[in-house]
Amino acid sequence: MKRLSLIVLLAFASWLPAAADEGMWLPSLIAQRIDDMRAKGFQLTAEDIYSINRASLKDAVVLFDDGCTGELVSAEGLLITNHHCGYDAIQRLSSLEHDYLTDGFWAATRADELPSDGLNVKFLKRMEDITDRLAAGESRERIIEQAAEEGRYKASIEQMYYGNQQFLFVYEQFDDVRLVGTPPSSIGKFGGDTDNWVWPRHTGDFSIFRIYADKENRPAAYSPENVPYRPAQHFKISTRGIAEGDFTMIYGFPGNTQEYIISDAVDYIVRRSDPAKIRIRTERLDRIARAQEQDPAMRIMYASIHAGIANAWKKWQGEALGLERKHTLETKRAYEEAFEQWAADRPEYRDVVRDLKAEYARIADAYFALELMNETVRAGELNRVYRRSDFGERLYPQVAALNRDLFRILYREYYDNCPGQYMIPRFAAEVERLGSPEAYADLMFEATHREDDATQAPELEALRADVKRTVERILGVLGRCSTRNLNSERLNELYTVYIRGLREWDRERAFYPDANLTLRVAYGKVAGYHYADGIYHKPVTTIEGILAKDNPEIYDYDIPQTLRRIIAEKDYGRWGVEIDGRTTVPVCFLADNHTTGGNSGSPVLNARGELIGVNFDRTWLSTMSDVAFDPAFCRNIALDIRYVLFVIDRIGDASYLFDEMEFAR
Ligand code: ARG
Ligand code: GLU
Question: Which of 83, 84, 234, 594 is catalytic?
């Protein structure tokens, strides 16, 4: 009993609001946090952050391409986001003659800016708590239709706190977005997958676009007649620099967190889901990397596939380690027990933890089967037809050899680990008929690798059809659930009650809704951290660190010759600043803002709301913050805006872009 209460006490201590810069707050309710923000150094008001009556900082932030964030930096629609957020658009605009990924791109005039078909940005016009309206019987469809004002806006309703609150979001979407500038990948992706999720970091992860509108400043499909959009607000840029401890705020669109899940869900993630997915991806990445090492053409062909697989793979490893280190499972268990004691004589909450546990037990196998299927049978490399003519005589044998391996490995993983009752019937039957998953893998390999020009493989179509049926069957068991991250309909109902109970019971805890790709404010400070015994990670990196990593032999570390020369000669010109007694250019910095995927490209602001950086990553050991935020360890990684300006000027020779930017004095 004594022991338990100590653990409970520790559990509470870690959630005291003052202890952490944890939290992703709703902008329309930021008044509830503004005193805390100001106590930590912020100098603006809640109205400056979010207002529907006048221009506010929210009007300078966009949801970029439905998965990233971008920020306006001029009165003429200029916006900055990450290189990895613009990557698809840049790739689509590239060709053999114009390889903008490799060489970079800088539009010398407005007329040179490149329309990026398929890219859109959304501004949040307003958000509104409509919990009461819905409770009073208004229909969701009608509220959405009304808010859309005859197609002028896009409206959606998102639930917060598992349905305890419902919010209406109204967006204005722009589809004419043009590429203005991007550094070469050797800067924008410097360090590649090796440095991804890692500190110290030196990636110049930014790209620049411009939003175009019609003459009335309204959204319009691409037209040469369109003019640069005039935003209600844009960020001033601060080049005054930063120091450890300085206030920081991040304004952006975090995608997915699950801070309130019970211990059983953490147990599933740490012990079952993450390890299986990591193991499978390790095998997959090993094979791909080996094929890449044998041939530069293979390296290029698999670069973005490898990067895509490796990104979550590394993140999950850090997440599992972080949650173990922080004893999140035990802490959550103690917290739930304490809640249950409180709830014992409250009928509406008495059974909710028990019911949650029962529901997790009920769905675990079904959900795992779904996750496993996505990582194996539905893996991208196994789901297309490979024609010799598409790859040529030289590459086809290498692609084929790699794929034969991948089929065998991934089919074996699926067969050995899928809970029997949820296995794809056709898969099970074929393994039975042929004797082993490898034999079935060989058959599917043959079916999808063709000498002729067929675009379809009947065997693949048949398997896909059965995959679809199996997914339907599993979703039938889980129950359709619209909430991100939640695996069953029943869980959503139970969490609605559980969260309501927690908020009644745990008055000290600062509750914020889980991320769901709606606009949020996170605040904190520039901060290093103790990485390991005896190792402190300082929060700032500098340009000489790029030269230290530079290696023309290694693709990801081969910087442009111009940059090599500038650093070697310390030819920094107006960009040189004094750090630790030497002249340098700052590159990246760490802060303890609570961020997640989707926050890529988010503006990092100082106490005056001026732009000091562009968010693009976290350290891998801190990705646990999607489940539990550890203030001692969790750090986001931002690009220093001064390095962005340096690259625009000295690599892009595009300093004319500064004419339309506004610099804080
Ligand atoms: N880790 C960052 C994010 O989660 C950047 C990913 C892109 N970069 C890469 N090297 N794969 O999305
Ligand atoms: N790179 C991530 C993104 O694309 C941000 C890193 C994170 O998960 O915090 O949104």
Answer: 84
User: Are the CB atoms for 412 and 438 separated by under 8 Å?
Assistant: yes
- Match 């590429």 to its residue by tokens: 179
5 is an active site residue: no
Q: What does the buried/exposed string (b/e) look like for 92-105 if buried means 16 or more CB atoms within 10 Å of the residue's CB?
A: ebeeeeeebbeebb
Residue-wise pLDDT tens digits, 567-606: 999 999 999 999 999 999 999 999 999 999 999 999 999 9
Strands 114-115 and 121-129 turn out to be unpaired
Catalytic residue among 59, 193, 205, 550: 205
**Exposed e or buried b for every residue in 358-375, given b needs 16+ CB within 10 A?**
ebbeebbbbbbbbebbeb
User: CA end-to-end span of the chain, whole Å?
Assistant: 59
Residue 624 forms beta bridges with which residues? none
Query: Rounded to the nearest whole angstrom, what is the distance from the C-alpha of residue 560 to the centroid of ligand 1?
Result: 21
Looking at the CA of 252, which ligand is closest? 2
Nearest to 260, CA basis, from 662, 627, 643, 629: 627
280: nearest Cα among 395, 153, 381: 381
Q: What is the rounded CA–CA span in Å between residue 221 and residue 388?
A: 39
Give the pLDDT confidence of 395-448 residue by residue, as tens digits. 999 999 999 999 999 999 999 999 999 999 999 999 999 999 999 999 999 999
Residue type, 118: G
Tell me which residue of 292, 245, 328 sits closest to 628, measured CA to CA. Answer: 328
Spatial distance between the Cα atoms of 60 and 63, rounded to a whole number of angstroms: 10
- 9 pLDDT band, cuts 50/70/90, is very low
State how far the alpha carbon of 463 is from the alpha carbons of 401, 413, 444, 458, in Å: 22, 17, 9, 9
Could you tell which of 201, 257, 604, 618 is best to mutate to test the pocket of ligand 2, judged by most ligand atoms within 8 Å of the CB?
618
Q: Catalytic residue at 600?
A: yes
Complete domains list, the chain, with CATH: 1-120+175-252+521-665 (2.40.10.120), 263-499 (no CATH)
**Which residue owns the Cα nearest ligand 1 atom 7?**
84
Å from CA of 93 to ligand 1 middle: 21
For residue 196, the CA-to-ligand 1 centroid distance in Å is: 6
Cis peptide before 200 (omega within 30 of 0): yes
Query: Residues with Cβ < 8 Å from 537, sequence gap 6 or more?
Result: 199, 200, 528, 529, 530, 531, 590
